[in-house]
Amino acid sequence: MNLEIPPDALAINQAQNAGKTPDESNILKAKNFKLPGLTRYREGVMKEAFFFVQVVGPKFGSSAYPEEDCKAEKRRMEEIVNCVNKMEPDPRFLVVCGDFTHCKPDDKEYFQQVENFKGAFDNLKSGIPVICVCGRNEFDKEPSPQSIESYRLNFGEDWFAFWIEGVQFVVLNSLYYGDLKASEDFVSEQNEWLESVLLEAQVNPPQFIIVIQDTPWFVSDSSEPDSNNNVDLATRQIMVPKMREANVKAILSGDQNGSSSDGGIEAIQTSCLNGSDGHGFRVFKVKSDSIQHNFFTLGNSPKDLNNEF
User: Fold this and answer.
1) What Pfam families would the database entry show (predicted)?
2) How, if at all, do strands 280-286 and 50-56 pair?
3) pLDDT at residue 259 above 50?
4) What is the spatial distance between Cα 269 and Cα 272, in angstroms, rounded to a whole number?
């Protein structure tokens, strides 16, 4: 007897345990490797500079674990939502880089943590979409194709591109270069898609490209040794030159605050929401030829963004 649970049934079961259907949240979900509305057709030309906000590693449920309580993390994220709502001009989007929850999908506490994570954005201005970039805790301890499909049904596809004011954003699942290496079909599919995006950018250039992922391609320079906080050197040696040729201007990731530049690509890291640099977020200003960014703590959050840059 085959007792394997289909991926869609698994995701629906997880969502129902969390009190939501797979389509019920304020998170903008990718389909066909695109975000609805944020396409080149609508956003392919830069008319003005814009802002966006990045939050890293909210880890709902971490403060009280093993108790099933997300009050601290939900309060913190709702504070960020209030800060974002007060910003002028409105940021074009709020991107959250994994880990969304403390527990993984094969933990019983995961369902409640996901419900609280999604609910924290209920009061965010309707014109500011939430974009999720997956991290390690979004997949089972022993990742499988089923857990990948489950993630996609809950949060949308795990790699995709979108456009804002002529700038192309490329979101990657960096776990395919690490914890999910064994998922060969998904690894090769993402690599083929990424190479096609970078090749298209050389033929039909965007203003420039910004890559967003959980684990950085590199921290200090693209030839640094392998570590738990970068993509393996062999892959870097293949892909980073292609990124330069496609005019990738920045790679955004998480873990700790800092930035470095290598061959025209700036690697920008933002610390986790509960990290040692204080509870905070990073605000980016994107202009036609440059990217500016500052990290703000919750007690020092900006309102007039033009005065900050």
Assistant:
1) Metallophos
2) antiparallel
3) yes
4) 10
